[in-house]
Design brief:
The protein folds into 3 domains: 7-69 and 220-303 and 429-489, FAD/NAD(P)-binding domain (3-Layer(bba) Sandwich); 85-218, no CATH class; 308-414, no CATH class. Helices cover 36% and strands 21% of the residues. The protein has 16 helices and 20 strands.
Length: 492
């Protein structure tokens, strides 16, 4: 089934929009990506302050070794050789977890590369829980096999037939009788995808953790460089991107998609539209009556993940050289759940004399309600003062880990409202739709809509993160082609 003259319009140019655009363009579709901002990339794109590239959505990648899932995706997209990466874990550490509860937790726990080393570290930290650890790591290995074997995409019964979402991972840990310390170590992986461990489907937890244990990598260059690689690849195979193209509404006639109306007044016709943005945003673009009330209500009631607050700080590279692993400072409760955490990454920068310290934490969404109706650049001095106070607090807390920050200069900080306005994510949600056990039915098959020719892609379709988002793109292509044609045309 070749599609040389079928015109596809894709809303959004993040990793979801760009990956599905490359896939469809490679299959012969005429692909146009529409991006409301002046440059493509969404959260994948970094930004420059004081000559230093500040990362937003990509801090490290998993499963890029030969035969592993992200390597298979990059190979298919034709970008592997052009995305420069360096392997993490050569010092035996990918992530270091610092805990705040010395009575129930080790002072720190190191996540190493590889399942054997991870099991050994767990046993060293929690020697009395060997039986539970054996079960946990056995399940992780099975999940890695499923992940790298692309079983989800090859399943005949639909993309969700392999997902055991009936049991939250927290309940699984309860059944094993895990200590608060072991529970917290394992709960970190759920935090990476914005879901509390008490409500995180076991498969999503294991997919996230197994992907990084399989192999972990950092970008050698910026997120913007990765965007450029994807854009160049798309354009090389005949696709195009139009920036500064904000969508006013999706044209629908008798529940069949016809094209897009831009805010500029321009109209673009197309037999297929893919919304690679939050489904709630796509819903707002549809005319009244385009979808059934039941679908409308399902999307409208979806709960989203929390947002983040981030600070980027320039420091003296001689005093603060790059640390080759990530650091998490973890708040825990008496049961071992994680109410909040701080993420730190200290990297070399584009300027020889300076390193970049990036700090991320939860967005404390309620604090920003007074500016809910404002737009970026027009929030006033009180908003700026609020951001500065929180940035100062985060920096003081960081100095408890790194010592006094020599040559410190705050390059930038952003709040949930920044994310909301930049990538059009409701409430500034960092990971889109909450992929919780409680929302299993509501989030099933989000890429299928009731409008013929209208599909969804992006991090909300299957799972967040680069792997989850690209897998969601392939899942949507499978829906477009049908399972038989997908198996025939897509060779991963």
């Amino acid at each position: 089934m070749k599609a040389e003259h079928e015109n596809v319009l894709i809303i959004g140019s993040g990793i979801g929009g760009l990956s599905i655009a490359i896939i469809l363009a490679g299959l012969g579709y005429e692909v146009t990506v529409l991006e409301k901002n002046r440059a493509p990339g969404g959260l994948l794109r970094s930004y420059t302050r004081d000559g230093i590239e500040c990362a937003v959505g990509v801090h490290y990648l998993g499963s890029l070794d030969k035969g592993q899932v992200l390597r298979k995706f990059f190979d298919y997209l034709g970008v592997t050789d052009d995305i420069a990466v360096s392997r993490m874990g050569e010092n035996g550490i990918i992530d270091r977890y610092l805990f705040d509860s010395p009575a129930t937790h080790p002072a720190h726990f190191d996540m190493p590369p590889g399942f054997d080393a991870y099991e050994a570290n767990l046993l060293q930290a929690f020697p009395a829980e060997a039986e539970s650890i054996d079960r946990i790591v056995t399940d992780l290995r099975k999940s890695a096999d499923v992940l790298h074997g692309l079983d989800i995409l090859h399943a005949k019964g639909g993309d969700f037939s392999l997902l055991d979402q009936s049991l939250p991972y927290g309940e699984f840990l309860d059944e094993l009788g895990c200590s608060p310390g072991l529970r917290s170590v394992l709960a970190l992986a759920s935090s990476w995808i914005g879901v509390p461990v008490s409500d995180c489907p076991g498969y999503y937890h294991n997919m996230a953790l197994a992907s990084y244990l399989s192999s972990s990598w950092r970008l050698k260059q910026s997120g913007t460089a990765m965007v450029d690689v994807l854009v160049n690849r798309l354009e090389k195979i005949g696709g195009r991107i139009i920036c500064g193209a904000e969508i006013d509404k999706i044209e629908v006639d008798a529940r069949v998609v016809k094209g897009l109306h831009l805010c500029s007044g321009e109209y673009l016709g197309g037999s297929m539209v893919v919304g690679a943005v939050h489904p709630g945003v796509v819903l707002q673009m549809l005319p009244d009556g385009a979808v059934k009330p039941s679908y409308h209500n399902r999307i409208r009631k979806l709960q989203n993940t929390h947002s983040v607050l981030s600070v980027h700080v320039r420091v003296d590279a001689k005093v603060h050289p790059e640390i080759p692993h990530n650091i998490f400072k973890v708040e825990t409760d008496e049961k071992g759940n994680i109410p909040d955490l701080k993420y730190y990454q200290l990297r070399s920068s584009e300027r020889d004399n300076y390193s970049l310290l990036s700090i991320l934490t939860s967005g404390s969404d309620g604090l920003w309600l007074p500016w809910q109706e404002s737009v970026s650049g027009r929030r006033g001095t009180e908003y700026g003062d609020m951001k500065k106070r929180h940035a100062d607090n985060l920096i003081r807390e960081a100095e408890g880990i790194f010592g006094p920050l020599s040559g410190l200069k705050v390059l930038d900080s952003y709040s949930p409202l920044t994310l909301r306005d930049w990538v059009n994510t409701p409430e500034g949600s960092a990971y889109g739709v909450l992929r919780s056990s409680s929302q299993t039915l509501a989030t099933a098959m989000l890429n299928r809509t009731a409008v013929k020719g209208l599909y969804l892609a992006g991090q909300n379709v299957l799972a967040p993160g680069v792997i989850g988002t690209i897998m969601g793109s392939f899942s949507t292509v499978k829906l477009i082609l049908g399972p038989r044609e997908f198996q025939r045309q897509i060779c991963l």
